[in-house]
Amino acid sequence: MDPEKLYVSETFANPGPIIKRIQPRAQGRAYRINKRTSHITIVVKER
Question: How far is CA 16 from CA 13, 20, 23, 38, 42, in A?
């Protein structure tokens, strides 16, 4: 594969796992925080 002949054929992003965190609040309550992640895919092809 010659790096000079490569080009980006397609790109897409899919949802990944969600990391769940808890944020303490007043009077003993807690809010859930969802930290979202994603999977980014880039496909390259040769001309």
Answer: 9, 13, 22, 4, 16
Residues 2-44 have pLDDT tens digits of: 999 999 999 999 999 999 999 999 999 999 999 999 999 999 9
For residues 7-46, one letter each, b for 16 or more C-beta atoms within 10 angstroms of the residue's C-beta and e for the rest, the string is eeeeeeeeeeeeeeeeeeeeeeeeeeeeeeeeeeeeeeee
Closest CA to 21 of 35, 10, 3: 35
Q: 16 with 38: CB under 8 angstroms? A: yes
